[in-house]
Write a structure and sequence with these properties.
The chain has a single domain, classed as MFS general substrate transporter like domains (Growth Hormone, Chain: A), CATH 1.20.1250. The protein is built from 18 helices and no strands. α1 packs antiparallel against α2. The radius of gyration is 25 Å and the shape is globular.
Length: 467
């Protein structure tokens, strides 16, 4: 196992790595939080699209590095230094409020479907180009044509804001935007008085009433002030907006963090060591193996958003149930890795890539639904700590120790054979089994929250409490 030692590298490179890694985290968090606030009625779909594009970004840079930059490290650094800021500045023109030409829900849904389709086609195309480039020598003209098609796929979602800018709806027919406060407070339409929005259920005792009388609350406050008393502000209930310190002391917060930590920690262990795993299993060229994991990771990220969004609206099924299901599949994948049956390496890698994508993405809308969007940035950032902590414990310590111990037995710095990671895979299988059990407990605990939030088939923001 090889780790970067800050003492053995130039200090300029060390500073560059620190700045680059932190800038990436800040930028991705800002984009995610902003879009979750812009489209709070489609949280799973939005998270899936954003995380999906993030997952295939490495493949885009790989194709760019191979086809256009001629595998030159200096050209790649120059592009990252100058090209990325120029692209960001150029795209700022499209960051503006747009009004859809017709009903908000149908229009936004069509736009989401178009973006999802564009990302899927891009991912399939990138996988195909990577395999072709690995097997066939391409001329400069063919390489430039292939790269131009990549850019067309990347730019295709810009057709949405262009269309919405050129074909605006009349001001008189504008409906409330999906992310507006008015739309969230009142829902997509005033519910009929004969059909109550929330039917009495056992969840009432756990959640309390989301729709307390504002008039009664104001009268109580005035009476309390008149008597010289100070009315104690109640704590938020799940589904309302939490401050970080309020969410930090909740059992559901830590259950979600632990499940996320166990799931992505196990997945990142395979991702970080996939090249060594392939070599240990006798695969000389691991490019296709890495591409397969990346593509399946993208499928898991995008698919988890669409799948969980459908079932949470139609069946009020908490998204954490899908986390439990994928953790069970991860147990199977790790057992297949450990047993090292012939022909199962690529199957295990594909299964693990999909499940890792599910785990990585589902935490995002779940945390926003349980603890609100007002302080979602810091809550989401803390949840993300499960990724590096898992990488440190499972990849750096567990997998590194087992690999080095087996390599020492073979008298070499490189370990060959299934036993190089067998113990690691069995331990990770047990970890995922524990994660599936905890995620089922979390699902049972938060089921009433989802029944309350999605009782009408679409997200309903609870009336803001005074806290």
């Amino acid at each position: 196992m090889y780790l970067l030692d800050p003492c053995s590298m130039p200090w300029q490179l060390w500073i560059a790595l620190v700045v680059a890694s932190n800038s990436n985290a800040w930028f991705s968090t800002a984009v995610l939080v902003t879009n979750m606030r812009n489209f709070p009625l489609s949280r799973g779909t939005v998270a899936g699209i954003l995380k999906g594009y993030s997952g295939i970004s490495a493949a885009v840079y790989t194709v760019l590095y191979s086809l256009l930059l001629e595998q030159s490290a200096s050209k790649l650094l120059l592009f990252l230094t100058l090209g990325i800021p120029v692209i960001c500045l150029a795209m700022m023109y499209f960051v503006r409020p747009c009004t859809p030409p017709s009903g908000e829900d149908s229009s936004v849904h069509v736009h989401f479907v178009f973006t999802q389709a564009a990302s899927v086609l891009l991912a399939i195309y990138l996988l195909t180009v990577t395999i072709i480039y690995d097997k066939v020598s391409l001329s400069d003209a063919v390489s430039h044509v292939l790269l131009a098609i990549v850019f067309l796929f990347l730019l295709s979602p810009l057709g949405i804001p262009i269309k919405m800018s050129l074909f605006r709806a009349n001001a008189e027919t504008i409906t409330p935007l999906a992310g507006s406060t008015e739309h969230l407070a009142e829902g997509e339409g005033a519910p009929s008085q004969s059909v109550p929005l929330l039917s009495p259920s056992s969840s009432t005792s756990n959640l309390g009433s989301f729709f307390e009388s504002e008039y009664a609350s104001d009268v109580e406050t005035l009476l309390a002030e008149g008597e010289g008393a100070v009315k104690k502000k109640r704590r938020p209930r799940r589904g309302e907006d939490f401050k970080f310190r309020e969410a930090f002391i909740k059992a559901d917060f830590w259950l979600l963090w632990i499940v996320y930590f166990l799931g992505v920690g196990s997945g990142i262990t395979v991702l970080n060591n996939l090249a060594q795993i392939g070599l240990a299993f006798g695969v000389e060229n691991t490019t296709i193996l890495l591409s397969l994991f990346s593509f399946c990771n993208f499928v898991g990220r995008l698919g988890s958003g669409a799948l969980s969004e459908h079932f949470v609206r139609t069946r009020t099924i908490p998204r954490t149930l899908w986390m439990a299901c994928t953790l069970i599949v991860m147990v199977i994948a790790f057992v297949l890795y450990a047993l090292a049956f012939s022909g199962t390496l690529y199957v295990s890698t594909a299964l693990l890539g999909i499940c890792y994508g599910f785990q990585y993405n589902l935490m995002v809308p779940t945390a926003s639904e349980l603890f609100g969007l007002e302080h979602f940035g810091i809550i989401y950032s803390f949840m993300l700590l499960g990724n590096p902590v898992g990488a440190l414990l499972f990849s750096g310590l567990l997998a590194g120790y087992v690999y080095d111990a087996e390599a020492a037995k073979q008298g070499s710095s490189t370990c060959l054979g299934p036993e190089c990671f067998r113990l690691t895979f069995f331990v990770l299988a047990g970890i995922c089994g524990l994660g599936s059990f905890l995620s089922l407990i979390l699902t049972i605990r938060i089921r009433p929250v989802y029944q309350m939030l999605y009782a009408s088939g679409s997200f309903r923001l609870p009336r803001a409490s005074d806290h």
